[in-house]
Structure formats: C-alpha cells, structure tokens
Amino acid sequence: xxxxxxxxxxxxxxxxxxxxxxxxxxxxxxxxxxxxxxxxxxxxxxxxxxxxxxxxxxxxxxxxxxxxxxxxxxxxxxxxxxxxxxxxxxxxxxxxxxxxxxxxxxxxxxxxxxxxxxxxxxxxxxxxxxxxxxxxxxxxxxxxxxxxxxxxxxxxxxxxxxxxxxxxxxxxxxxxxxxxxxxxxxxxxxxxxxxxxxxxxxxxxxxxxxxxxxxxxxxxxxxxxxxxxxxxxxxxxxxxxxxxxxxxxxxxxxxxxxxxxxxxxxxxxxxxxxxxxxxxxxxxxxxxxxxxxxxxxxxxxxxxxxxxxxxxxxxxxxxxxxxxxxxxxxxxxxxxxxxxxxxxxxxxxxxxxxxxxxxxxxxxxxxxxxxxxxxxxxxxxxxxxxxxxxxxxxxxxxxxxxxxxxxxxxxxxxxxxxxxxxxxxxxxxxxxxxxxxxxxxxxxxxxxx
Length: 449
Description:
Layout: H1 3-11, H2 15-30, H3 33-46, H4 50-71, H5 73-81, H6 103-109, E1 121-125, E2 135-139, H7 141-154, E3 166-169, E4 179-181, E5 186-189, H8 191-195, H9 200-210, E6 214-217, H10 219-231, E7 240-243, H11 250-260, E8 263-269, E9 276-280, E10 283-286, E11 291-298, E12 306-313, E13 324-332, E14 338-342, E15 349-351, E16 357-359, H12 360-363, E17 373-382, E18 385-392, H13 398-412, E19 417-422, E20 437-439
Parallel strand pairs: 3-5, 3-6, 6-7, 7-8, 17-20, 18-19
Antiparallel strand pairs: 1-2, 4-5, 8-9, 9-10, 11-12, 12-13, 13-14, 15-16, 17-18
Helix pairs in contact: 3-7, 4-5, 10-11
C-alpha cells in the first residue's frame, strides 16, 4: 500500500487507533524502496571525494535538462529559442543561456510545464506568500525522496525515525485539540491555540501526555510556546528544536535554546521541491543531491551583498523546474557563513486579539479558490480584524467565498477576523513595491491616521 492510500486511511481514524497502529504506518515509510534507495544514496554521497561528487551532480543535471527538453513543451520551446542543446551540455556555466523561470511565468505557462510522460503524481500548492498561489504537480515518489532528505538531516541530531515523537506548531487544527500523524509520530497544534493563553493548561496536558522528544515548527509559534513554558514554570526535555517556514532572530534562537536546554536546527526548502538547505554551526549548506543551486547577485544598491536563490530540482519529473528563481536570498555573515532570508522571512505581521503577532507562515493558505486569485494582500486597520484583498483572474463564486471564509474562521479560532474584498489594485509602497501584508497599526496598537 502506498503513502497516499495509507494517509487517506489514517486521516479518518480515531486518535486511539492511530496511536496503536503508528509503528505499522512508520514502517510503510522507512521500508519503501524509493525511501531506502534515496537514504542510501545520501549516506554514500557524503563519503565521496569532491571530484566524484561533482561528476554525479553534473550527470544528474544533464539528465534533467535532456528529460525536460524531450518531454516538457515549455523547455523544448525555450531551449530551441536560445539555441541551448542539452545533449551537448559540457559545463555548468552553459546553464546561463537558459532564461530564469519565476512563479509568474510558471503560472502563465500552466500545462506547458507538465511532462507528457505518464507519471503517477499528486497536486500541491504554494502558500501564496508572494501574493500568488502556484499549482504544482509532483511525482508521488518525491514524497519518499523528500522524507529521506529530511530524516537524513535530522538523524544527525539524534532523531530516530522509528521512535522519535515530535510536537509541531504549524497550520491549523484538523481536530479540536490537535492533529496526530502516525506516519511521522507527530502531534500538530495550531499556533492560534497558543494565542489563547486560557487554553494553555489544556495544551500542556496534551503535550505532557504525548511526551515529545523533538519540538518543531514556525519559530514565531515556538517562541510564543517557550514564553508560556517559562511563565508557567514548566519543563519539556527535548533532544533539539527544529525551525522551519518562518523567520527567527538570534534573540529568538537564544531564548528557545535556553528555555528547553538544547540546540536549535533549521532546514530550508519550499513546496516546489527544487532546493533543500541544511543548517549547521558553519552556516547553511545546500544539499547537492536534491538539486543544482545557483546564487545570482542582486543589485539593490544596499551595503549588503545579496544573492537570489535559483534552483534546478532533481526530485520530480512531472513538472521539472529549471533555473527556477525563488523569492529568497542568500547573504554571507562576517564569518563567511551562508544565511538565507526572503519574502517568507519578513518581520511583517498582523495583530490579533490580545495584541498577539501573527506572521506570514501562520496565515498561509493552500486551498483551491486561490488558483483563481492573481494576487492577494492582507490589510489591517484595527486589532483583531484584517481585510483579505484579492485580485481574481476570474470571478469568485459564492462557494469560493464560503471555502475561504470557513478556512480562515477555523484557522484563526476567534483571534483574527478576516473579511474578503475583491479589488482592482493592491496597495503599493511609495517606491512601487508590493507587500503581502500592509499593517496600519502602530506599536501601541493604534491605527495610523
């Protein structure tokens, strides 16, 4: 039975049954042949000489380029237009002849980016953190490959894929209290539940009963949790804390590490599955087996040198992404270590009831109506309420509005009221720049006049 069928099966099970069958579900993952092959390849690759590594990566890159040319209409047209011959590809510098692919181009090309080969695949969507949701098709095998990369990294810090229990703060609750994934042996608690401090005793009871070994999720949510743990004088011994999908500052990192008495780790990736970076004491490192990564200089007249992350993924063939320009950038700190930031790392936030700060990652939506939306933007004038302004490519139906309203009503749990407005244009800065969130509330929670 494959991962997708197993997931459908356990989604509808009572938690008690999920707990009992968790070891069985986990074995489905780690005994899968694609997972095992990928994990073994990662182990072997780490022990190779640098020249051998370069040879393997170059061959993967060339195979990807040839495959895309032979099977994907967009790349056949694009390569021919710039006279790029993937069969004669000899040096990675030749990649510069291929135009960048950004999200706007990808959305407009639609099915031209899909392989004509009959590949088992599934649909995913980006969070729309640039204001545009992006529909993606991914090979079903990429589920196992992705998990192999994640666990190969986490296992270095004491994670045991067969035993470790994870407490995660992200998304929204599928159940009233928390969602349990037996495949990952993980309970997921909505950050919005943390924002209601009166619920903390109940939250803590759930956590204490589960006894997690690892804490994971949005840094902003983990920081809120850490403050509650200190305030109520609780103890939670975990092996490490993993940050992902949100910004964290050195201050948050230090606060969380002192609270839980362990190290913090982080990984960088995105829904499109074309780039993966792992954080170590010496900075972020891009995993070369995951994809080929280019760092393109950004000329923004600032004193800090920035490099845009451009990636060519190796995990999925149904919708290959070649020279895909992300919205994230690399900088180098004073020690020469790589640091990653970008649109999703912004400090922009909305303010919910009680003054809680709600960051981008917590608000991200991956629901069908957003496919019709060209751009969207959150606008706030008063605490606890925000407008969701949308520019739609085609009219939203009453059912679309209902789906969006129901999604955010459930997600925000009364902390933030969101009202949808269809608009002709969005609010831009004086320099004409777009922002995912426009907040007119000052630090003392009063509206800017």
